[in-house]
Amino acid sequence: MADGSAQPIHRALGLTDGEAEDITAILGRPPNHLELAMYSVMWSEHCSYKSSRRHLVRLPTEGEAVLVGPGENAGVVDVGNGIAAAIRIESHNHPSFLEPYQGAATGVGGILRDIFTMGARPIALMDPLRFGPLDDARSRWVAEGVVSGISGYGNAVGVPTVGGEVVFDDCYRGNPLVNVLCLGILPTERLVLGRASGDGNLAVLLGSATGRDGIGGVSVLASAGFEEGSEAKRPAVQVGDPFEEKRLIEACLTLLDAGLVVGIQDLGGAGLTCATSETASRGGVGMDVDVAAVPRREPGMHAWEVMTSESQERMLAIVTPEALDEVLRLCDRWDVRATVIGRVTPSGRLRILDGFDGEVLADVPAASLHDAAPSYDRPCAEPSDRARRLADDPGAPAGGEITTALLAGLCDTSWIWRQYDHQLFLNTVEAPGGDAAVLRLKHPTTGLDTGRGLALTTDGNHRWSALDPRAGTAMAVAEAVLNLSCVGARPLALVNCLNFGNPEHPEVMWQLSEAIDGMADACRAFGIPVVGGNVSLYNETAGRDIDPTPVVGLLGIVDRLERRPPGVGLESGDRVVLLGPAGPASHAGSAWAWSAGRQGGTLPALDMRVHSAVAGVVRGLVAAGVPSGVHDCASGGLAGALAEMVVAREVGARLAGIAPGALLHEAPSRVLLSVAPGRVGEVAAAAGAAGVSWADLGGAGGDRLVIEGVVDIAVAEAVAAWRDRLPSALGEGVASA
Amino acid sequence: MAARVGVVLFPGSNCEHDVVEAIRALGGEADIVWHGDRSLGQCDAVVVPGGFAHGDYLRPGAIARFSPIMGAVAQHAAAGGPVVGICNGFQVLTEAGLLPGALQKNAGLKFVCTTASLRVDSTHSVLTSAVPHGTVLQVPINHFEGNYTCSPATLAALRAGERIVLRYLDNPNGSMDDIAGICNDGGNVVGLMPHPERATSALLGSTDGVPLLRSLLATPSAVLEV
């Protein structure tokens, strides 16, 4: 950590003067360098959530199915048949901007460890991605590198990537977002928590040797924005090895199956400092760590480097002395290095020693690294131009703009997900590219098919959140609910990844606070508990914050998985039916408004009651096999959804009686269905019973997409726009950097 | 029927459970065989499954060929026993010299996971013996190094011996002569890039892998008499 300036060392480590004084008060003496380094990583924004903690408590976290809520390595919910699902989402935004391949790859690795730490086998990944515009060379380089990194690591580690999202927008030009969600399943009785207990038990470090990669990643990278010269931070990006991780997964799950560990914890941000102090403080005990015993990749490493390194593919297992030999034997079978590096003590103190009987290098209360971390009530301020902006309605598109907007919104994402193994484990019923992924639910140890399914979606819309973080975030949750309905699933639990700018900007804190309230409102209305989350702040470059981008991951259940969901697409000869409100609404926050440079107005209203009713009707119809195609209206509105249905199966449509003002706005609670003429009555009956409005908009078929009086284009033209978007920008068959 | 299939597990393999599940669903028996063992135990047939054996370090299959179990696999093959390498397993069999040629990086230099249309071009193999010549099958592919290549002499021998078992209708990786799968002279050792085990359930999108796996389950004893 080169530091040419004369500033005090705590500042170089990212600690404020006040925080340094707090540490001195806790210890009753000034901290030494190692102790300061340990506090600096644990009290970083990334690890301590010091700016967001007081806001996050407003999220609803309780629910019947919830086994483990926020605060552990992953949320865990009961999904029936003796099976629990563990789910978590994280960001790896900053590393991915500097080193796209490794940044994304290690993001995948980190989230996997969070899941198998809970005793769960990871069965699916999802990647919500945000990049700068496709006409920007650096953004293309980042996008290609990130996708290669996810592909390279996820495929090799043997966990399918079953979906995600991608958005290209100017606000991510200097700060892409790489969020990674992982889902795992475990037999309910095997649930393990990351805690140490039992005086004399041993802490065994599993996996890779510790190197100098990723030192201070959480404090240097994740807790500050980018400026000119950010490349100098590259050594803080870790390097991943999926083969090591694969063996680590198998070894850890074998240890857990055999009941050989008391507790287990992954080493992620803040490395050994975090893993040792967290297991100790959760278990209400202390730990002596022999830093000299930690296997190293290179000679000459200082204790503070070993304790804060973020070298990948490492786990810490707490085992009884009696179990040690068997643990070492099983690890050896998988060629996983296992070394005793610590002992559980009753003291409550985390001591770092040079040999168990050697010099004491650090001695701090283990819990203070977490519990005593500062919590800031940072100033929140509504933007001064908010009222003016809300009143600045974007108006409506002229007739001729609709075709252009419709074509511009089409993007075949298969260029991305064809690079991901999305089929491993024989679970993937609905592949990426649909509204939500659907996975068969098989028992993790017996393999028995339950006849039910898990559904998974991620959603976020920066335009909506930029305009109104509270309403926009509620709409993102609502969209996720509707996406699950489109595959016949009901929502079970939500995780969130809150990507925001610099929390020291009062407007950013206001955005964060509002977004959390919007998420809380929607989750309460829909009865969805929040079981985990991740907050990524300082997403700014050269003083420019990204648009607030809360992303939600929603897990749902398909109660009877008897057939494949209908998918996005039209069947020739079907009727095209709209469920939900049909009329014009404000175009505020829509893709059209943004492209026209009109970033004002008030978002269309979300009526939670209407939304729940629409979601329920769609879920019921899909479960009953009524529609042959289904798609919710979200980004791009009704016209966008229709165009996506047309290109999916290259079947045209002719619609009539739709006002131009109803085509591109992005009001919630609307779903398009492709329904055989003989089954429209079933749709009408279900909608009528639920008090949901519906309309027969026209017929599917032919080789043109016609909205009478507004749009008339060849299906082939739409298909070409859709299919060529990414290959023409990112290249086909080009070697990655 | 009810043949017993040994599915080889290397560190880094990841399709072993999928193969076991598919074989069992078809009425066969399947057991995992650890790469460090020297014996296959009681197996009628061997499947070397997909994944990244030994992390694909150096190149796919380059280290796996030295795993202790490979001696037993070679003996089984030499005795006429069925051996099928799927994806990474195909790469392992070529590295081990049980099949000719090699698998290079895809022509597009990208990983490709999609469903490919395959045509059965030879029934002289344990994997295609029960599938009519010319049958078109929809089977997933999932690889970065699936671009088959070999010397002109080898290609001529493969053609002459009707040893090109499966061809792509729309070549996804640049492989020579659209080759998706080949077999040895005896037809008892087969390597293919597509994953038949991923095409065994209508719920998952295709059942076209079923006739291939059924062929394998139906033929071991007949081949052993060769």
Task: Explain what you see.
The complex is a heterodimer of chains A (737) and B (226). In chain A, helix 7 runs parallel beside helix 10. The N terminus and C terminus of chain A are likely disordered. With 737 residues, chain A is an alpha+beta fold. Chain B has a single domain, classed as Class I glutamine amidotransferase (GATase) domain (Rossmann fold), CATH 3.40.50. Chain B has six helices and eleven strands. The C terminus of chain B is likely disordered. At the A-B interface, helix 8 and helix 10 of A face helix 1 and strand 6 of B.
Brief write-up:
The complex is a heterodimer of chains A (737) and B (226). Chain A is an alpha+beta fold. Helix content of chain A is 34%, strand content 23%.
Rounded mean pLDDT of chain B is 95
How many helical elements of chain A? Answer: 24
How many helical stretches of chain B? 6
- What number of domains of chain B? 1
State the CATH topology of chain B: Rossmann fold
Low-pLDDT runs of chain B: 222-226
Question: Which percent range fits the helix content of chain A?
Answer: 25-40%
Residue share in helices of chain B?
10-25%
What's the story with the biggest beta sheet of chain A?
A: 7 strands, mixed
The backbone outline of chain B, from C-alpha atoms, is: globular
N-end to C-end Cα span of chain B: 18 Å
